[in-house]
Amino acid sequence: MAERTEAPTPRHLARLRRRGQVAISAELSGALGLLVGVYLLRAWGSDLVGKLERLMRDTFNALARQELTPAVLQARGIELALWSMALMAPLLLGVMAMGVVSTLVQTKGLVALALLKPSLNRISPAVNARRLFSWRGLVEVLKGIGKIAVVGFVVFQSMPDHITRITVASTLGVTEGVRSLGSAVYQIAMRVTVLFLALAVLDYAYQWYQFRQSSRMTREELREELKSAEGSPLMKSRLRQM
Length: 242
What we know:
The two termini are 20 Å apart. The chain has one domain (22-112, 126-216). The protein is built from eight helices and no strands. Helices cover 78% and strands 0% of the residues. By secondary structure, the protein is mainly α.
């Protein structure tokens, strides 16, 4: 098999882009989404906890005045779940929006409809097994282990600073206890997020390098590409250099 030693032409890169093949880091999108989520929890956390507490209180007060039949419990459970989802919606939408924006920025606004086409390779056990045991699969496993290690390290390092606050929070009422505990959790979460962002930047650099390597062409592919675009002065110049 011929080695892919030649830098890709703009035409080749454009063709790959139409197929949805661009440099993108899911880790970067995830880290930015986590940052937004932590910030929104910091900004709205107290208000959210208060509303959830009132919702729970109203639900149990209503149940105390009713006969507890399966139908009543089911109706109240569904109502509680829907209201809880409504209260959490701004937070979830904020995280999702950040993920979408981050992806669009990385791909320069690419919307690849080609990726929506069904492909047997996506569900092929053999293909997926090769991906799992490939170098890229190993990197993904190491990234997962690295993230777990980061969380464990930060929590372990932060616990001595917050153990008193966490202990006191258990003796307070629900609202005050959650608010006190939330402050400690926020500080730990921010440390984790900053480290995740640093790892995500490195991952984006790695993904960009991998994409550039995988998009390289063989000399034969390059000759055919240049011959088919001989009208371009840039292509003519590059063809003469070969």
